[in-house]
Design a protein that fits this description.
The protein has 10 helices and 5 strands, in the order H-H-H-H-H-H-H-E-E-E-H-E-E-H-H. It is mainly α. Keywords: DNA integration, DNA recombination, DNA-binding.
Length: 259
């Protein structure tokens, strides 16, 4: 964005730091906007003022031809919100994406993987729990299985978010929009979490992350939150260990549009 001027660059950074608070949305929007600006440059559009609704529509049409409708709609949303922010900051006079319609898409069935009880049991039982890493993976997968937690909410948990109340372990999940859910643990999940926390030796680090990365070359856990991409890779690896069909059916990982 520096090529578009200092004011545009400053407003651009504000959009992703001050305006968008959700880390996952920030990451997705940044990738989508970068892809769009690269596409514009390749098509001879080198200034923000030169972007028209025809350019945005052509870009969305190209996405629709190569990718599913939700991908194109997300890209359009990122472009539209960014240009709105630039309009209010008086960087550009109008938002050329405002009049562009995205592809229609009706969700009749959710795509979130739902495991049958026997599939979940096979996946959990296939994990080697003789190491802290195995115990961590079993606890994370068990948390999502027994509480239906989003992976983002699970990975953002701190050690203090697994706590005892009335002699029973509870988990505190911080969901989108600042919502907080507190859920009593299934007895299996309680066993998984206690075993992991005890083996990892993190019980007293209440403000530290619950699910942590692995220190390179040591097999030991670090003090850093596990990244979402690493968690997806781990879950797919564990699913493959439980059975190739399970991994292919439930945990195929889509790529990013190469435009």
């Amino acid at each position: 964005m520096s090529a578009f001027g200092e004011r545009a660059a400053c407003r651009f950074l504000e959009f992703f730091t001050a305006h968008i608070r959700n880390a996952n949305t920030r990451r997705a929007y940044a990738r989508d906007v970068r892809t769009f600006l690269t596409w514009c440059e390749a098509h001879g559009v080198t200034t923000l003022e030169a972007i028209t609704s025809l350019h945005v529509a052509a870009y969305v049409e190209a996405l629709t031809q190569a990718w599913a409708a939700p991908t194109a709609k997300r890209h359009l949303a990122a472009i539209r919100h960014l240009l709105d922010w630039l309009v209010t900051g008086q960087v550009v006079p109008t938002n050329p994406a405002a009049s562009v319609r995205g592809p229609s898409h009706v969700v009749r069935r959710g795509k979130t993987p739902v495991l049958a009880p026997e599939e979940a049991r096979a996946m959990l039982d296939a994990i080697d729990v003789t190491t802290p890493v195995g115990l961590r993976d079993r606890a994370l997968i068990g948390l999502m299985v027994y509480s239906f937690a989003r992976i983002g909410a699970a990975l953002s948990m701190k050690v203090e978010d697994a706590y005892t109340q009335n002699r029973r372990l509870w988990v505190r999940l911080h969901e989108k929009g600042g919502k907080r859910h507190e859920i009593p643990c299934h007895h299996n999940l309680e066993t998984y979490l206690h075993a992991y926390i005890d083996a990892a030796g993190i019980g007293r680090d209440l403000k530290g992350p619950l699910f942590r990365t692995i220190r390179r070359g040591t097999g030991l856990l670090s003090e850093t939150h596990m990244a979402q991409a690493d968690a997806y890779t781990m879950i797919r690896r564990r699913a493959e260990a439980a059975g190739p069909v399970l991994a292919t059916t439930h945990f195929a990982l889509p790529g990013s549009p190469p435009i």
